[in-house]
Amino acid sequence: MRKVLLLNGSHKSGKSFTMIIAEQFVSGLLEFDPDTVIQTVDLIQKNINACTGCHTCWTTTPGECIFQDDMTELFHQYEEADIVIWATPLYHYGISSAMKKFMERTQPALLPFIDNEGGGTYGHPFRNPEKMNKKKHVLISTCGFPSTKNNYEGVEEQFNNLFGKDKWEKIICVEGELLGIHQLDNLTGPYLDLVKIAGKEYGENLSISPTVKEGLSKPFVETPTYLQTTNLSWGVDDTRMKDSDGGLIAWNYMKEVQTAFNPKVRPKMNAVLQIDFTDIKERYQFVIKDETCTLLRNDFARETAAISINLTTLERILEGKIDAAQSLLEKKYAVTGDMRVFNAFLDGLFGPVNLSADKKKRLVPISFKNTPYWFFLALCPWLFCFLFAEYSPLIGVVVPLMISGVLCSIKRGPDLVYFERATLLTFSLLGLAVVTFGSDYQGNTFAIIGYFALALIWAISTLKTIPLTADYTHYFNGRNALKNVLFLRTNRLLCYVWSLVFLAQAGITLWLNTTVLINFAAIIPILLSVPTFVFSLWFLKWYPTDAAKPK
Ligand SMILES: Cc1cc2nc3c(=O)[nH]c(=O)nc-3n(C[C@H](O)[C@H](O)[C@H](O)COP(=O)(O)O)c2cc1C
Questions:
Q1: Mutate which of 12, 19, 20, 91 to test ligand 1's pocket (most atoms within 8 Å of Cβ)?
Q2: Do 397 and 530 contact (CB within 8 A), yes or no?
């Protein structure tokens, strides 16, 4: 029959969060083996003197403490237990004082000699190694912070040194305070179910499986939400929010942003970016002019763009914890006015794109070769094809092949984008077709293939990280544009539209082939590009602005 000693180190007898978890764990142990004997001890209720370091237990009365208090019986229970569950809240990055007192009073279990345990670790050997070495230890702990990092290292090292590295199991529940909020039972309930599973597993294997461990190490909610909820739950004003002249901490924060912002990213920019904090109801403005940035907290100027955001969201964006554009799409904040000013602001804050070598390969540096002007050069081969393929495959296919070959060889390297590669490939294949099957085709065959090829190329580009038009239009949108999900989504939608337009052009050509206009069947559909081009210019501005608007 297995004996389990559950030591409750919480000082809140009765409503301890740690004990909620410990009891679930124990119920798992009992589910596995109902005969398990559980002895629960509320350490805070016990009369346990603090170890005075007299060392009588090592010298005069070996193995016996001079104090005759509740620890006398507890020490016996401790020695006899097969499993000891150390259930303690985290207090000041360590175990609770009640538990520490108990721990120190286990000194009689040790011999006075100091052993070198290797790896720079020293320790006292057990007086009764046979009993002590087979004893299993489980740490169960809750804490108030949302992470174990820089929080639990002390306790973990203590347990490693006492019981041997990785020879003990643990359940550490961060954001433990939430266990006391019944409205959150839907979050904490599944966690407690998992604790029970852990208990059952431990009963069976004396270990907890990695998947269950992983589940148990997860916080209940995201850190910012947790901080906001718990910080507000105290019902006490945060006096740190006030600065020396009675303003809010946001002012200091804005000053940091001002320092971090580099106005030189857009030398010609003349704009006023307004920040409206929705939570603390404060307004600030950055006036960006002549490569300088001034911060205003009153006497406001007319804004060019305005961001409505709460302080925590802005902090998280600037700390790089959440993506600015992604959060914008998720309506975590809103931007009105000129989106370019907003993009320039992000560019000025985050500077040039700093990506891993792998990601860099997929990104296109900004140079003239990636301007929309170059894009029109890249369209030339297609134009030639539609205008001349019907009359002469040599001009309609071979010349476009030459043009795209020349363009690609001028561009080369990382500047060369998907559209140019796809164009070269298409005309190479068409050239091969002419060489293989001859050049005698009826009814605008090459033009129809060309329209379909364009539709396919543009459709495929919507599946890529950087959709086709983004390769060229990011020139106007700053270095961070290719990381900006809103910019990428705008271009992706645009590429869908163009892909459909090319399909329509293919269809129109096919239809015109059956009419008297057959000689112009390849050229007439090109006219459809004009309104689509006008639409594109409008859409590139409208969509980001609309997506950034408040709900
Ligand atoms: C004196 C004291 C010190 C604390 N120190 C920490 C700490 O260092 N880190 C932490 O994350 N939580 C800390 N907390 C929060 C507790 O660990 C947390 O509220 C825990 O869930 C309480 O468990 P209990 O209900 O079982 O007593 C501290 C709480 C108190 C009262």
A1: 91
A2: no
Q: Which of 10, 44, 90, 226 to mutate to test the pocket of ligand 1 (most atoms within 8 A of CB)?
A: 90
Res. 6: pLDDT tops 80? yes
Closest residue to atom 3 of ligand 1, CA basis: 91
Q: Render pLDDT for 226-259 as a digit per residue (tens, 0 to 9).
A: 776 676 566 565 655 555 454 556 776 787 777 7
How many residues can be counted in the chain? 551
Q: What total of structural domains would you count in the chain? A: 3
Is 18 within the bounds of a domain?
yes
Q: What number does the ligand 1 atom closest to the CA of 173 have?
A: 21
The CA–CA distances, whole Å, from 110 to 8, 68, 98, 154 equal 23, 18, 20, 22
Tens digits of per-residue pLDDT, 480-526?
788 788 899 999 999 999 999 999 999 999 999 999 998 888 899 99
The rounded Cα 469 to chain-centroid distance in angstroms is 27
What is the DSSP pairing of strand 83-89 with strand 136-142? parallel
Same domain? 255 vs 224: no
Question: How confident is the model at residue 362, as a pLDDT?
Answer: 46
- Say yes or no: 28 and 147 in one domain: yes
Query: Do 75 and 140 belong together in one domain?
Result: yes
355 located within any domain: no
Q: Best mutation site among 85, 143, 150, 226 for ligand 1, i.e. most ligand atoms within 8 A of its Cβ?
A: 143
534 has pLDDT over 60:
yes
Do residues 448 and 382 touch, judged by C-beta distance below 8 A?
no
Considering the domain boundaries, does residue 289 fall inside one? yes
Q: Clarify whether residues 345 and 367 are in a common domain.
A: no
Domain final residue pick, 350, 384, 405: 350
Domain shared by 344 and 392, yes or no: no
Euclidean distance between CA atoms 109 and 530, whole angstroms: 89
- Structural domain span for residue 278: 241-350
Q: 136 and 264: one domain?
A: no
Minimum-distance ligand 1 atom for the alpha carbon of 10: 27
CB 493 within 8 A of CB 543: yes
> Which atom of ligand 1 is found nearest the CA of 12?
27
Q: pLDDT, tens digit, for every residue of 394-437? A: 888 999 999 999 999 998 877 788 999 999 999 999 999 888 88
Q: Can you tell me the distance from the alpha carbon of 441 to that of 430, in angstroms, rounded to the nearest whole number? A: 12
Instruction: Please report the pLDDT score of residue 246 as a whole number.
Output: 46
pTM of the model: 0.52
113 belongs to a structural domain: yes
Pocket of ligand 1, beta carbon within 6 A: 10, 12, 16-18, 89-93, 142-145, 151, 176-177
